[in-house]
């Protein structure tokens, strides 16, 4: 069976990004608060259904995905990443154009193949451009922070950008989605138990596909 493992650093782990969940209450019905923005549980559920439909349409079996978290958690993480770094970019005057996004897709073999890579990492097609826009912004911010061609400078710059994101656009997750550890992602939490989706949607046409960790 064909593997759609990511070959470029578009996943959160590969990008050296770990989003920190801050303490404090989260408004009822919210899945996450990113700065002054809100992602609702309903929006997450909608995107999970969209992801499952996209996986089925591309014959990517869900039961073969190799994600570090549940589908709802991965969708939430990727939606949060998109909003956090687009907002940080806005405040820093850093943007990513549609041409930037298309050029990145072309460089990775074109949208037809790249969409499968993104789907396998928990990113439905209707969220792909937002995710890539945030990824490009994050990369530009890292370059401004001193990222060069060597791994050491890239990691150091990535940490600077991460720290600024945590301070400037803090994230709060609803405990309903699990306990968030910056080093590990969502982890088991005996206080709340495992994540239980409110309205699980059966994947159309059966299962999904194989992919590497997308958050860390």
TrEMBL record:
Cited PROSITE patterns: PROKAR_LIPOPROTEIN
InterPro entries reported for this sequence: Trigger_fact/SurA_dom_sf
Originating organism: Microbispora amethystogenes
Protein name from the UniProt record: Lipoprotein
Assigned keywords, A-Z: Signal
Keyword Signal listed: yes
Gene3D superfamilies: Porin chaperone SurA, peptide-binding domain
Signal sequence annotation: 1-23
């Amino acid at each position: 069976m064909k593997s759609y493992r990511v070959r470029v650093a578009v996943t959160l782990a590969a990008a050296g990004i770990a989003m920190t969940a801050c303490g404090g209450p989260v408004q009822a019905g919210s899945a996450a608060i990113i700065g002054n923005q809100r992602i609702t549980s309903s929006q997450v559920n909608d995107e999970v259904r969209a992801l499952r439909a996209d996986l089925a349409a591309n014959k990517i079996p869900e039961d073969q995905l190799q994600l570090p978290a549940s589908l709802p958690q991965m969708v939430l993480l990727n939606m949060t990443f998109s909003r956090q770094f687009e907002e940080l970019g806005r405040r820093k005057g850093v943007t990513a154009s549609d041409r930037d996004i298309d050029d990145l897709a072309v460089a990775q073999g074109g949208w037809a193949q790249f969409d499968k890579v993104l789907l396998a990492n928990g990113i439905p097609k209707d969220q792909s451009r937002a995710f890539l826009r945030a990824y490009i912004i994050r990369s530009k911010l890292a370059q401004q922070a001193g990222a060069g061609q060597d791994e050491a400078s890239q990691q150091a710059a990535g940490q600077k950008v991460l720290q600024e994101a945590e301070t400037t656009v803090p994230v709060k997750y609803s405990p309903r989605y699990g306990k968030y550890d910056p080093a590990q992602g969502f982890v088991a939490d005996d206080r709340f138990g495992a994540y239980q989706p409110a309205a699980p949607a059966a994947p159309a046409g059966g299962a999904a596909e194989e992919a590497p960790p997308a958050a860390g």
